[in-house]
Amino acid sequence: MCKPNLYSHTYSHGFSIQREGMTSDKAVRDLVMARTTSRPQDAWFGVVMAKCNEIRREMGGDRTRAFCVYDTGLESNESHGEVFRAHKIAEADDAEHRHTLYKIFGDGPITKSENYRSGRPWSLVPPPVQARTISSKIPRP
User: Fold this and answer.
1) What is the separation of C-alpha 43 from the centre of its chain, rounded to a whole number of angstroms?
2) What was the pLDDT predicted at 28?
3) pLDDT per residue over 52-96, tens digit each?
4) Do the domain assignments include residue 42?
5) Which of 7, 92, 116, 123 is deepest in the core (most CB within 10 A)?
6) Distance set, CA 84 to CA 46, 67, 101, 117 (Å)
7) Would residue 87 count as lying in a domain?
């Protein structure tokens, strides 16, 4: 069984995206604070980027769109969006779509929080939240 990731979330409840061109540095900070305030075990490690038209362009074996990207702006976050699978994807195509989505999101490299947008949103995050690390989320035996 795979760990939950962007791809597996497209099956159930979608995964959230932020529309880069509509998101201010303060809005990024607010998003990070909303997540880390309610979940003190969470840390902001970084971001992955993709172009929505590339996600929408991905086709299934039946030549229909595999994923949909929706504008689901919220009052508290106007730049919010969601990525969902357009329909059930045949098991034989599942691994290929997972790989393609991975490639669309930059083939793995994550822009670290402190480097994203030249560090501007990171500089707005309070030091105690900056001090959190991903390794602190991993349970110790």
Assistant:
1) 14
2) 94
3) 999 999 887 778 888 899 999 988 888 999 998 888 777 767 778
4) yes
5) 7
6) 22, 6, 12, 27
7) yes
State which amino acid sits at residue 56: R
Structure tokens at 130: 């900056």
> What is the end-to-end Cα distance of the chain in Å, rounded?
22
Q: Residue 101 has what DSSP assignment?
A: H
Supply the range of the domain harboring residue 109: 6-121
Place of tokens 């393609």: 100
In a domain, 79, yes or no: yes
Question: Which two structure tokens, joined as six digits, stand for 31?
Answer: 């998003």
pTM for the whole structure: 0.78
CA–CA dist 57, 106 (Å, integer): 16
* Residue 20 domain flag: yes
Question: How many structural domains is the chain composed of?
Answer: 1
Instruction: Output the six-digit token pair for 14.
Output: 């979608």
What digits encode the pLDDT tens for the residues 97-126?
A: 888 888 898 886 789 999 999 999 999 999
